[in-house]
What we know:
Layout lengths: L1 E4 L5 E2 L10 E5 L6 E7 L4 E6 L4 E6 L4 E6 L4 E6 L5 E5 L2 E5 L6 E5 L8 E8 L5 E7 L7 E6 L5 E8 L2 E6 L5 E6 L4 E8 L4 E10 L6 E7 L5 E6 L3 E6 L4 E7 L5 E7 L5 E6 L6 H6 L6 E4 L14
Amino acid sequence: MHEQSTDSLLTIIAGEEDAVQQLQVIHAQPSMLGEGPCWDADNRQLYWVDIESGHIHRLDVDTGQVATADFGQKVGAVALRQSGGLIVAAQHGIYLFDMETREQVRIANPEADLPNNRFNDGKCDAKGRFWAGTMSMNGEPGKGALYCIEPDHTVRKMVESVNLSNGLAWSPDNTVLYYIDSPTFRITAYEFHLETGELGASGVVAHIPENLGTPDGMTIDAEGKLWVAHWGGSRITRWDPQTGRQIGEIPMPVSKPTCCIFGGDALDQLYITSARIGSSDEELAAQPLNGAVFRAQPDASGLPAHKFGG
């Protein structure tokens, strides 16, 4: 693991007068495929991953210091553990990981028979279960799935025939799980039973117009509204799942924002990851911040991130 400082902390992007839309670059060194931001409220730190390099990053927002660990394989997402350290959704399964010692312990590999698959996005529910989904690295449709990993490391397959498992969010009252399978351009809601972790009836709560860009990572605010990053769309959007309507937008100076999460002391700051992968020389000249991590000041606040109980 190595540490570096970021002199880009609090750099304000010019051209936005509206404070709701104001963006700051908090880490300018680009990730090829930045993803999975996770806020550690106890230590005022932001975690995120670079899927392609297999790096896990941790930013101390007070000092600007960034610690990086090389996981040794593609990493889709991380979440905090109640007992310390991280749970990691990676190319070859689910792991427990210590950033300081780099100790890895694999606790599950439900798709060992699918070597062209990898885990992608993942988050914990309010009972300490880790939910993570998979995708085909070859782009094969329907090869992925959404899994639930219990604190005792039991694994359950919850959704089958997934194309590219992405955004996850639970309603503030924990009765609904919102889920994005990116190529469908839909946000699907499942009845969620918190005590058992079971899913019930499902339905589409938002159809995403393709001209907005592909829906990628997602988070939810304290009002129950959904915030979605749009790959190829240069924007973060806000949706009302009760009406299916878009009710807000944050324009981005990068074409591939990937995910967002609320952080800060009042959970009123929106941290946004982005990607550089696939950008042409012309795109990089026009969008030099592709792959950076940003912070926005939306007129909303989020919910605390849950930790893995195992």
